[in-house]
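[step 3/7] fold_predict: job queued, chain A
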Amino acid sequence: MPQYTPPLRDMQFVLHELLDATGTLKALPKHAEVDADTINAVLEEAGKFAAQVLLPLNQVGDREGCVLDKTTHEVKAPTGFKEAYAEYVEGGWAALSCDPAYGGQGLPVTLNQCLYEMMNSANQAWTMYPGLSHGAYEALHAHGSPELQQRYLPKLTSGEWTGTMCLTEPHCGTDLGLLRSKAEPQADGSYKISGNKIFISAGEHDLAANIVHLVLARLPDAPAGSKGISLFVVPKFIPNDDGSLGERNPIFCTGLEHKMGIHGNATAQITMEGARGWMVGQPHKGLAAMFVMMNAARLGVGNQSLGLTEIAYQNAVAYAKDRLQMRALSGPKAPDQPADPIIVHPDVRKMLLTARAYAEGGRAMAMYTSLQLDVELASDDEAERQAAADEVALLTPIIKAFITDNAWIATSHCMQVYGGHGFIAEWGMEQYVRDSRINMIYEGTNTIQSLDLLGRKVLADGGKKLKAFGRKVAAFVEEEGVNEDMQEFINPLADLGDKVTKLTTEIGMKAMRNPDEVGAAAVDYLRVTGHLVFAYFWARMAKVALEKKDAGDPFYTAKLHTARFYFAKLLPETAGLIRSCRAGLEPLMAMDEALF
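[step 4/7] structure written:
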C-alpha cells in the first residue's frame, strides 16, 4: 500500500518563510489572533487525520466503489468511509474556516487549503464529499436569504449535512444555457422542481443524515440561455422548523456512473419529480450565485491534483531508492549490490524532479491564492479587498488548469518510475493516474479555464488584472536584479514576463479581427502564463533558500536544487508554447470538415 508523510515542513516554509502568512492574517481584524503556533498545530493534526484515517481507505474505495439500491435509491459508500466522515465531523474539521455565527471556527481559508491538500493526497474520492459541502456552504453564505442561512448553514458548518452542486444535464455540459430543468412557483413561496441532472459528485451516499442539493433550473417566464437560470436549494429531506428532518423530497439517485477513477465517490444521476426547493438569490440570476460555489470548486480541483502530485512523488522516490536495475552509465554507484538503485539514472531523476517541482510550485501558488482570498473576505480596506479579488480571479483558472495538467504529467511520470509495477493495482500508483485525469475535465474543462483566463480575465479588462500581477513580478525582478546569486532565476523570469506582455498584445490584436483567434491560442497561453506564475514563486523560493543555504539544513539545499531544475528543464517549455500561440488560427481551421 502507498505511504504518505504530510509535507508539514514545506507547508511551514511556504506559509512562514515565503509568504509571511501570519503577518498578512494579523492585519485582518477577524484573524488578528492567529499565530504561527496555531497554524502549525492545526497542520500537524490535519496531517495525522489524513495519513492515519483516510489513506488506509483509498485503495478500499477504489476496489469497492459505491453501490446503489435501485429500489430505495440509496447509495452505500465504500467500507470505512462513513466512519471516517464521522471522525472528520467529530474533530471539527468541517467547521475549520466557517463563520462563527453558524458554529464555525473562523480560521483562515489558507489553513483550510492545507487541510484539503493533505486529505486529497490521502484519499481524493473521500475528500470530495466534504469538499462539495464547503462549496454549498459558501454559496448559501454569500447569496442565501437569512431564513435559508439559519436553516442550512449550521448543519453544513458542523458537517451533520453535506451538500452538492447540480448543474449538468444529459444534453448539456458546460453550456448551462441549454439546461431544461423547470421550477414552478408555489403559493407558499417554495418551488416544485423537475428535471434530470448527471455527473453529480457526492450526489447520494450514507455518510450524512441529509444532502443539501443546490440546483439550477428555469422559472416559467425565464428568458432563453444563461440569463434565464435560477438557483434553488433542494434538500434530500425537508427540514422541520426545529432543525429535525421531515418528509423525503422527491429528488432521487437513479444511477451511478462507472468511471475511470475516483470510484469511492458517488457520481450520481439525479432525477427530480416535483421536488420542493427554495430560491437562492434573485430570479434568473442563479449563475451569479452558483459561481461562488463553482469558483470554490475550481480552486478545490487544483488542490486535488496538488495532493495527488505530492503523494505520487513521495512513493515514486521511495521506490526509486529501493529498486535495483542496471548500472549507472558512469560506473557502479552501489558496488556492494548486484545493480544500482534506479534513482542514479538521469531520466528517473528527471521524472522525480518534475513531480517535485510541480508539487512545490503548485503549493506555493495555491497557498498564496488562498491568502489573497482571506484578504478579499476579511480586509476592512475596500481597495485592498478589490485588488485581492482581482488577483484571485486571475489565478483561479490557472490553478485549476495548470496544476491539473501538471498532475497528469507528474503522476504519469511517477507511474513510469515503477516500470511494470506501476501498472499493477496493488502498488497504488496507477490509481493516482486514473484519479488525476478527471481533474482536467470537471468544473469546466481546462480548455474552458483557458478561454476564461484569456478572454474574460485578461483581454476583457484590457489586461488590468494581468498587469497588476506583472507589476509584482517586475518589482521582484528590479529588487533582485543586482544580486549576482539570483541571476539564474531573475533573468529567465524577466524574459518570460516581457514575452507574456508581447504575446498578450499580439493575441488581442488578432482577436479584434477574428474572435476565434482566442480559442486557437487560449490553451497554450494559459500554460505559458502558468509558468510565469510558477517561475515567480520558484524565484522567490530560491531567494529564501539562498539566504539560508549555509544554515546546515538540507531542506534549503533541496529547495535550491529543485528551483534550478525547474528553470533549466521545465520553464523552457514556454518557447514552444509561445511559438504555437503565434501560429494562430489558420493551421487549425484550414482543413474542410469533410476531410476529418
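[step 5/7] annotate
Residues 376 and 387 are 8 Å apart (CA to CA).
The chain is about 60% helix and 10% strand.
exit 0
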